[in-house]
Amino acid sequence: MVSVSVSVSLRQPLNMPDPNMNGDQSKPKSKRASRPKVKTGCTNCKIRRVKCDETRPQCTKCVRSGRKCDGFPAVNKRPGEVALIAPRPDSSSTSPPSHSTISFANPPDSRSIIRRPTRTLPQQNSRLTPPTTPVVRFIPKNYMTDFLPFDSQEGQYFQVFRTHTANELSGFFDSDFWTRSVLQESHAEASIRHAVVALGALYKTLEKASESPPGSPDNNNTFDTAPNHYRFALQQYAKSVTRLRESMMNNETNSQRTILISVVLFTCFESFTGNHTSAITQIQHGLGLLEERRQDKRQPLVRQRNDVVEDELVQMFTRLAIQAKSYDMAFHFPHPWVIRLTPATNPTTPQSPTSPSDAGSHDGSFDTIIPDTFRTLQEARTALDSLVERGMRFLEAMSSFYHGPNGILPHEVKSQGSGFRTQLANWASAFEQLLAGRRGPNFSNTERAGILVLKMTHLMSSILFLMGFSTSEMDFDHYAPYFKDIVELGKEVVVDEELTLAQQKCGSPSSCKHRQPHTNSFHFPGITSQQPGLLQDEESYTHIKASFALDLGIVPPLFVVATKCRDRKIRREAIKLLKNSPRREGMWDSILCGRVAQWIMEIEEEGMGEYLGYGLGSMDEAVVEFDRRVMVKEITFDMQKREATLRCGTRGARDGDYDPRANETHIWW
């Protein structure tokens, strides 16, 4: 069962009688006005001649009376009428949401966020509002779809999600899940509809916070402010969770596909707002459901489910599992926020699900099929996802051997590791053609960035996998070329973003008016757009706007460089990219990662002298000695308050043993 920290108060029914009315029975009763008969509703309600509330997939009348709802007949459309995916406004009015329906556990503070330019979907309707213009300029009276109706505000936020947010959440890769599957399901499932509207409202929160002056309402619209959009997002999220819970309790929702899509949306919302523990909990539930489904398929006598969970959705959870596991590997969360990819005593529990893409074999083999050359970006991405996931399961299994009674790695495990290393090399060879041709005319800016991100992920995965066989931080020095390549690739992504936005907004550098950042009045929860104290130099990337995507991108690879590379120049470049191009990729926040890496670097370089950037002949070439090297041991943080407690120590040191390098600090950002 999913949980939510947002509380919702029940509203009074709209048609309650006025208690102050005088029930005078002497007045003659007025006749009921004649109205056309309603021709919609389920078949049972039509036969019984009762009014159907048309709740889908089963109406409330049938559920309460214990009848089986026979469904709804197809609506006869007028000739030439076309059903639209997105609702259309038919008039305008303003109506701010009721604030009585929401309670804040952590209200937003007064600081602000700006965001990077969005990638809009191709639209046939040229009247769509461009992303640089606030979309919620009017609130239409009513929105209707072929299935579930939208009220005035919900429909407008749904339009925001459809035209902007869906593509933004895909990150550096196109995704039919966001641009097709979620949109279709939102018209038939109330929980998904409310979650989609909530994400659209969060997008509007970011958009309004980026304006200068930020959050300033229009003359005719006092609702169009970042705090109001944020409140409405929380309201809709609470409704989404409540609706899913009610549907499951009333047996209205038996589709695992619907539940899994809802879990993805809940994970997205929690990550968006900085609630990483809640996001991990949602991922655990989703992985547990997929594990139950996999176990059912193994039992020939178990009745198979009729609903289809397509590969696209399974792949989505594979990436979420990778994300949560990478987060745990970096920051070492305590139980119960630990994702296990290898089998445990009870693999069907949410705390210990197996790999979502696992076909039932846990022998540690790496059977990812890799062609000689990848023909598409999606083909390369799917293969790398499989490799990374299996590599993480291998490292998880190796950790259990290292922490065993004898701490010896069996020969068969080493042999499997050798095979995985070969698979990584084969992937790099097959990917070379795409990487070399990324600047060609056949690739869009988004595809080019996706190619760069895949290569960064491959290099990071290679480093972490090979270092899984080592217990010394000194061995990271062997991967200096990998660290350098990751930084160069990451810089290419960030510079491309900066140049694209600068050209769109300013035309030429000489006419640029964005040299100095403005101070916003609304701070989006947990994310900041500018690291305090940074100098505005040529590489400050002043046009890049803080952004959110559910998929991983450049942040995890840059964090590995910033904490594991002891080349003073390369390390500082990685930290600068993390701090100066603010973004949140799933649970990975670039500003937090930059601050953590800064602290680790300061501890390791204490006493080495100031880094001047002059190169040869200075202390810039000094190497961090073995007895100064540390690793992150534990981190606890509050993304809403933007503060964290960090603990570092010696690599390989067991908990409870004396560690002379142990250190602890508290940071804010």
Automatic annotation (TrEMBL):
Skewed-composition ranges (Low complexity): 91-103, 342-357
InterPro entries: Transcr_Regulatory_Proteins (IPR052360), Zn2-C6_fun-type_DNA-bd_sf (IPR036864), Zn2Cys6_DnaBD (IPR001138)
UniProt organism field: Hymenoscyphus fraxineus
Annotated region described as Disordered, given as residue ranges: 1-40, 80-133, 342-365
Molecular function GO labels: DNA binding; DNA-binding transcription factor activity, RNA polymerase II-specific; zinc ion binding
Protein name: Zn(2)-C6 fungal-type domain-containing protein
Pfam (any one): Zn_clus
Gene3D superfamilies: Zn(2)-C6 fungal-type DNA-binding domain (4.10.240.10)
Record keywords, A-Z: DNA-binding, Metal-binding, Nucleus, Transcription, Transcription regulation, Zinc
Biased composition (Polar residues): 1-12, 120-130
Domain of life: Eukaryota
Residues of the Zn(2)-C6 fungal-type domain: 41-69
Bias type Basic residues, positions: 28-38
